[in-house]
Amino acid sequence: MEEIKVYNTLTGEKTVFRPLVPGEVKIYVCGVTPYNHPHIGNARPAVTWDVICRYLKHIGYKVEFVQNFTDVDDKIINKANAEGSDWKTISDRYIDAYFQVMDAMHVRRADVYPRVSDHMQDIIDMVQGLIDKGHAYVLGNDVYYDISTFEHYGALSGRKIDDMLAGARIEVNEGKRNPGDFALWKGAKPGEPFWESPWGKGRPGWHIECSAMSVHYLGKTFDFHGGGSDLIFPHHENEIAQSEGCTGCKFVNYWLHNGFITINSEKMSKSLNNFFLAKDVLKEYSGDALRYFLLSVQYRNPLDYSRDRLDEAEKNMERLSGVIRRLKELAAKEGAEKTDASRSLEKAAEESLKAFHEAMDDDFNTGLATGAMFDLAKAINIYGTAVDGGLSVDHESVEKAYTALKTIMDILGILEEVWEKTDSPDDKSYNDLMDIILAVRQTARKEKMYKIADEIRDRLDAAGIVIEDTPTGGRDVEFKRVLFLKKQMAQKLGRGSPELGEQDIFAMDALTLAYIGDVCWSFFVRKALIDTGIYNVQILNSLASEMVSARQQSRILFEIKELLSDRELKVCKRARNTHSTVPKSATVEEYRESTAFEGLLGYLYLSRQKERLDFLMGRGLSYLAREFHDE
To answer: What is the pTM of this model?
Structure first.
């Protein structure tokens, strides 16, 4: 078994991992509180630990992985009361939503997903044990943990008891022995779910739940405990105090905490209202792209969210899909001739697999591990180009590269469907046709018939097929992505527009907003013209064309600018600076102002500000009516 080093939050340093039982690993990770759809910050630990479990199994460990759902919580109760529902309905709904997102990102199921509501007796028994051992005390119908009784309290977070109050979830109760004492059991309040206990009707505190469930499934001591960095204090600090206070044994040997996902360097969270729901991100990007984005840096480092990075992740997935297809094509060829190129490919496969293992053995550094994957992908493309140029294939070398790349990507959990996919008759026809088209274009390039070559490229581009020129001929690289989006769009026709958050809309590509705004304005104008009762096609077309022109839209924006809010002006500014082809019928300045106008309308439409949208378009129409009347 190879040596792995992990950064242990408890010791503050990297140490060699020594399992409690040779060849076995027991892991507990704090899961979500299911009161809303998971955001991508919730997805990060799930993807991180999925990769860790895959890797540990790959190198020979037997893994037992437990991840809980906190299905009894104030947030769930509050949401249920607001909806006139009950806590179980809410938690069931969002647990289902969680699994839908995880499935889309190829996250394999944990061995067990315990729920708090299913482990009340375990929790009550642990609370009673802490009372019996002098670590807890009853106060009315509540039970509190006395932090002064646990000698090592603060060891995980590196805090002293006197400094711990800042940021802690401290229950207000003047009868507590210490301000930092935390609730193990809370007496029932009106409108809340409750369970019977020796201290009356009530429900558990937040921290005791994970202690009871982890000990129930993994024993008094286990190998890894994971979660977000925000859980170090107070949650994980309190788990240690509870578990060790109750069992008298060391609770966890290695504590691993993932960094935050940030937006403009600020932590993403529901409480700050700056989060992106994973389901919304997955409407625009593939599960593979989102998964790769989350793995693109080492798990302990912060990860800044941006559309640019997700766009790049999607492009990387398309490139890798092309490499997989290329490998399958090479593997289907006959040949066993060793060449310098094939030996270089074998060496690249060996070195990439070695570099991948070294990265993963160094605190599961997926940021470096993905680099090894791309190094191998580059080597495969180089070899494929040589084969396209007439080099004989060495099947053994291709097989080694195939095995190495698939091993790496299987552990990272990306593009699983591409590896599994076999060409259907339609795929084969498409590939055969593309080979013919690209061969004709390459011949045109060699004969310096650049006009024909460019026309082939441009017409393919118009059909949604982007080709990438190589020394031996073009390769189609974007067609699958276009088909993916077209298929999604077709499936959603007639279902109405999705609910998008303010941050989602404001961060959206400005040209997309402008396109949506252009549709809104065109429809509004044409409806207004039809409503005049003058049903002459020539006049309708002439007026509509003029009213939706860049020149007129730029004038409208000038007229309404003083009515716009600061937020609306920022939207206009973003759209105005978007680069696109300027039509011959407008100046550059007119086009920029018209794009700003359309971007504003698109923003208002998506944010469902219908009255505001109708008001501004109405003002624009009134301005045009005056202009045309004066003419």
So the answer is: 0.71
